[in-house]
Amino acid sequence: MPRPSAPKITKACMPCRARKIKCDAASIGLPCSSCVSRETTADCVLSTRKRRTLRGRSTESRGTLPEDHGLIPTPVSHSRLSHTHSNATDHSNTTPIDRSIHASQGGSSHAHNSPDPLEIHLPRRPQPDLLYMNILQDTVNKSATGPGEAANAAGNDDDNCLHTQIRGWNPLLQLDEVDSEYLTKKGVFKLPAPQHMDAFVKAYFDHVYPFAPILNRVDFMESYRSGDCSLFLLHAISTAGCSYVPIEVIQECGYTDRSAAHVSFFLKAKLFHDFHCQGGSLPMLQGCMILGDIVPDHPSDRDFHYWFYNSVRWASRLGLHNTNARPRNEESQKLYRRIWWVLHNADVFYFFVNTQNLRLLATAPPIEPLTNDDWEDEDLRLLSDLLSPITHEQKASLVAHSELAQIFGTLTKTISSEPQQDMQRVMQPLDKWRMSLPAKMTPSDSPTNDEMYLLEVLTTSYRFECVVCRSLRRGRWGIRSEDVRKWARDRFRDATLELDSILKKVLLSGIIKKIPTTFITTIAALLALHIESALDSSQSDIARSMARVSIQFTMLALNQIQDTPAIKRALPAFEMVLSKNKLYPSSLHDVAQVETHGLQEGNVEDESVHVAMQSDPSFPQDINDQVSFLGGDIAGFEFFDRWQMEQLDFTGILR
Q: Where is the Zn(2)-C6 fungal-type domain positioned along the sequence (predicted)?
């Protein structure tokens, strides 16, 4: 075996080498001009690179095929070019910056063939297990270095990495002409007009991103405006933004309503994911996480479970679970920590609602708590038209959700392993956390004082308190004590009253159309609980009457957001259930009767509430006989113990 060659200094600094851009460090010294312009002078260092051996050169000659980070093969690039040319004629009066994202999509896919910079910084040394590839990698590292250089084997470049060479020998399958033509006909390479695409991006960053900050916003905007952004990620962002852009934007894009746009963008993103024809591991992870927080209004096997499982898979490939495998760049470390905590929260909440779900991250190594310092320092002077500054409340929201996930994870483990413990003592951490929340999220010196984020966190906490107390009341975890059940019944009632109060505050403040999907699905779950209480013969008459009143204003809230895809699918089911059980009036004559009865009981209700409660006359009279799951006592359904109510996912999802 040839002796290792003497190391030489590469001509490009590490950041420029990672981004595949020209570097003038060799001529002007460090820091280079590119790092100075990007304000990353601290990272501008030269890396030591070993000379290639003869065997390495022969390997390289065999491994010239593109890597798995490429966009798409040439036929697809040509199809995109033709589409972009037509777009350019339709929107010739737009600014060059606005057209850049569309124009560059038709160019060569060379820009997409470079791995994401975050992936470049990952150490190349594998974990010491018994996978044959890791054993071979260890062998190559030991034989390629001297006795004192074994520890530096992980610093070798891609040319000396066994895994990289094998990827060259076994490249991913490329799309053939048939696949390219199929994707082109499906319109997956089409984007809305630049001004409309900007509206979707802005809506995503204003209403979705604050609750799941899984992107580096400045880096994304740079790639978006330069045209190097992953189309899979753009379609995922457009799917999430459909619920928040003005309806005029939806219609100008050629869609009849939000649901049509939602389905179109969702199917395009799904096709990109199925064919894996664009983007590296990080954009694929981010896109899957965005799609996992979406409730479609149509049946699909690609539910939130599917996207969450794929998100965990991509996160494992990136090494997010391994603190030693994270990038050295501080901004990248912050991004990875936020992504990991969003996944961790979802993992806990998914399992908490339905124990049939598996905890995918239960054995992951512990990670330090998230803080408000885990966000990048952003310069938004050139991006203020699309990005708003991150507020204290937005940062505190994710931190609070992370704390809540840890509390509920510990609480569930304690109750399931030691069911005889004092439940009041078990709930103390949740009560203390909730009392400290207002001071953490809305400090007196905050310039924004946006209460929506506090209300959303409180809603999540009360929702899952309902899950715990309802489960205890029904004897879950082997608890048979009547005292515990009575205590759980009282806590459950208090939690639902708190949810009612928050919902009324959101309705009166006029922010219901700005709330995230988690809050929307909580409204549907709350309505299901009120229906259950109204039909529960074991409840007192006053409790059942109060449940009927709560049903009215909860349905009023759902009618305010009935065009939201997450609710559009659930609302007809609720209307059928309520109509069958005569829980709200189905005609004007019934409205008059209910109003008279309400006045006699001293309950003065606004007429608009009753009008909003009218049943949709388009439903046939015998539709309940056609839907088997509506028969019988609806109170027997496990509204919170299962994610789905038969074919209807209206009990919702969480991040």
A: 12-46
